[in-house]
């Protein structure tokens, strides 16, 4: 099996639609039934957003996972940092190191760009993701909070 992880350029992000549909369904379960946009609308947003970057994991040319990254200013150290906004691996492809490989690719990108750190948040209900993150990363010293501006966008 040949695995590749590479940036997915704008104009090709509709390829994510099947993975985004699976991801949204899984997150609805984790986040108590929250409704998500269509996978096509999600992919179109990723395609049009100037700061969104996508890493695509493929096994033998078939998409099996993705990571969505943002390169952000980090004012405390007057540097940049990475924000891993979303990470997903197809359920049948889990347990093969794909999530770890996506995170490693994000870290490598951060090293190349001189990021001070890579950060991400995870819903408390995402037990499998938390189990992985506890093994490969240090828990941050801060909490995450949210103010819901649009109640319909409860993801």
From TrEMBL:
Pfam families, sorted: Acetyltransf_1 (PF00583)
Residues of the N-acetyltransferase domain: 3-150
Keyword Disulfide bond assigned: no
InterPro entries cross-referenced by the UniProt entry: Acyl_CoA_acyltransferase, Bact_Acetyltransf, GNAT_dom
Domain of life assignment: Bacteria
Alphabetic keyword roster: Acyltransferase, Transferase
Keyword Transferase on entry: yes
Entry's Gene Ontology molecular function annotations: acyltransferase activity, transferring groups other than amino-acyl groups
Name of the protein in its database record: Acetyltransferase (GNAT) family protein
Organism (species): Falsiroseomonas stagni DSM 19981
């Amino acid at each position: 099996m040949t695995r590749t992880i590479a940036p997915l350029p704008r104009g090709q992000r509709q390829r994510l639609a099947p993975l985004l549909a699976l991801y949204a369904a899984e997150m609805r379960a984790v986040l108590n039934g929250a409704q998500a946009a269509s996978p096509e609308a999600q992919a179109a947003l990723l395609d049009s957003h100037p700061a969104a970057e996508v890493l695509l994991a493929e096994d033998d040319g078939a998409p099996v996972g993705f990571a969505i990254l943002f390169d952000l200013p980090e004012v405390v150290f007057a540097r940049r940092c990475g924000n891993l906004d979303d990470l997903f691996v197809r359920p049948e492809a889990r347990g093969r190191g794909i999530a770890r490989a996506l995170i490693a690719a994000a870290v490598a990108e951060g090293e190349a760009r001189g990021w001070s750190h890579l950060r991400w948040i995870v819903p408390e209900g995402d037990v499998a993701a938390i189990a992985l993150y506890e093994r490969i990363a240090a828990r941050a010293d801060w909490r995450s909070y949210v103010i819901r501006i649009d109640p319909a966008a409860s993801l």
